[in-house]
């Protein structure tokens, strides 16, 4: 069986591959199964870095909920916040700041998130950065409300879907994310465990022996 942290020729693990593709539900499944969120690909990008630079807001939120390092740096010392600021990802910048990302961290050329936001004239991001205390978290340190970002079946929700947001079951995980998780590298047996309704259920499962 392939390891859940096996790396491709590009150095990407299954969870990093899912982050690049914007597969939020697969990321959740792999995180539940214990995938490492800190392994870097061949360019030095963690899953969170890739999600932030590519604009996958739901994946960013999912990874931070599972404990990904918001201040991880790549080979050029760029952080997820630095990438989000450069590419104009306003809501991702907001969420990363809420989660404790440091706006003062400079890349290998000395550029901070503020520097690149100003360079590319992202006025909303400049304002966010200017008004945020460096490294401070807000609320519980998470990004967006969990219920707003972790519907696993689609980026949008239909009016007749009453399963609830962020409360999917093991059956949902098997039906919706199982095949994609296996494609990403998780063993089929592993996926049968399903995904908890919230990441903090990982701790409760350990306590109860589940």
Name some characteristics of this structure.
12 helices; 0% strand; disordered C terminus; mainly alpha; 210 residues; Serine Threonine Protein Phosphatase 5, Tetratricopeptide repeat
Kindly describe this structure:
46% of the residues lie in helices and 0% in strands. By secondary structure, the protein is mainly alpha-helical. The chain has one domain: Ankyrin repeat-containing domain (Serine Threonine Protein Phosphatase 5, Tetratricopeptide repeat, Alpha Horseshoe). The longest helix has 15 residues, at 170-184. The chain is globular, with a radius of gyration of 17 Å. The chain starts with 13 loop residues before the first helix and ends with a helix. Residues 145-178, 188-198 and 201-210 have low confidence and may be disordered.
Oligomeric composition of the shown chains: single chain
Q: What is Rg?
A: 17 Å
Tell me, what is the CATH class? Mainly Alpha
Into how many domains do the coordinates divide?
Answer: 1
Estimated structural class: mainly alpha
Mean pLDDT: 77
Overall number of strands? 0
CATH third-tier fold name: Serine Threonine Protein Phosphatase 5, Tetratricopeptide repeat
Main β-sheet description: none
Give the distance, in angstroms, between the N- and C-terminal Cα atoms: 23 Å
* Low-confidence sequence ranges: 145-178, 188-198, 201-210
Q: What is the name of the CATH architecture?
A: Alpha Horseshoe
What characteristic shape results from the CA principal axes? globular
Number of helices: 12
Q: Classify the helix fraction into a percent range.
A: 40-55%
């Amino acid at each position: 069986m392939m390891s859940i942290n096996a790396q491709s020729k590009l150095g990407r693990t299954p969870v990093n591959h899912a982050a690049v593709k914007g597969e939020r539900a697969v990321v959740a499944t792999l995180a539940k199964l214990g995938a490492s969120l800190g392994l870097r690909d061949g360019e030095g990008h963690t899953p969170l870095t890739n999600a932030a630079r590519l604009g996958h807001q739901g994946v960013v939120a999912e990874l931070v909920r599972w404990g990904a390092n918001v201040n991880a740096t790549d080979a050029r010392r760029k952080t997820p916040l630095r990438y989000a600021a450069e590419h104009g990802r306003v809501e991702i910048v907001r969420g990363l700041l809420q989660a404790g990302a440091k706006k003062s961290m400079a890349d290998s050329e000395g550029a901070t998130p503020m520097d690149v936001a100003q360079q590319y004239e992202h006025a909303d991001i400049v304002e966010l950065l200017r008004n945020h205390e460096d490294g401070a978290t807000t609320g519980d340190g998470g990004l967006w409300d969990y219920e707003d970002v972790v519907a696993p079946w689609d980026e949008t929700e239909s009016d007749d879907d009453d399963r609830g947001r962020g409360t999917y079951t093991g059956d949902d995980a098997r039906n919706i994310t199982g095949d994609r998780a296996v494609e990403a590298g998780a063993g089929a047996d592993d996926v049968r465990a399903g995904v908890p309704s919230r990441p903090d259920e990982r701790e409760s499962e350990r306590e109860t022996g589940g």
